Amino acid sequence: APAEPESAVANDDYAGASAIDPAATPFTDSLDTTEATPDPDAIPECFEFVPVDAGVWYSFTPETDSRVLLSAFGSDYSWEVAVVIGEPGSFEFVGCRPFTREIEFAGGITHHILIYDNQEDGGGNGGQTQVTVEILGDAPPNDLIADAAAIDPTALPFAETVDTTGAGVAIEDFELGCPAPEVVATVFYSFTPDRDMRISVSAEGSDFSAGVAVGAGPGDGECRPSAIEYDVEAGVPYLIWAFDDQDDGGGNGGTLELRVDEVAA
Length: 265
Prior knowledge:
By secondary structure, this protein is mainly beta. The chain is built from no helices and 18 strands.
């Protein structure tokens, strides 16, 4: 039988993954994946119900445990990013998401990263792909709901500037009433008012497309771009959170300017 023609894309399959030097991050790559194809021998389990097309592979082995930001924003098609460790047929699944993804990478272990066309735009042919892989610093201290920073209701207005670059996204984020996958790079605050009041929460002045939300628990959240007003009741614990809604095509977070104040009656 004649040999199959070589792909025009060098890192079209797992065996040809492009190695990323951790000492040279942030790493960026720009390539045309219209002739890339899925590797039938290396499709992670998260794709059981999602057609994989125009996939390209990278390998990355950080020296130490690292928070790594993965993104293909700037690509001109609907894409997803996936990370696995191990060999085809025995992959250990790390995760896949159709948006920028912050993932904990274990030091000294080779991780394989797959960027592919998820065909949500009805295409499936790939396109011009922009890849970013970046090692991040420490996560914000209030990156998770359990670590929400307390806001004193007697000391309003509250104002804080915080770097949310690459802040994580937890499954709990999607239980709060905000649309997924738009909610990423989230930071949390707790607020228990000492009286009934109406509050305003604003992220105006942030250097990314920031959204804000208020809610008393799962399914109770109300989310808005930039700013929101919300009636709160005395003694009820509320969550206030800010996130990157990816409206600017980013999804990496940035410098958040958060302000919480009481609205005058």
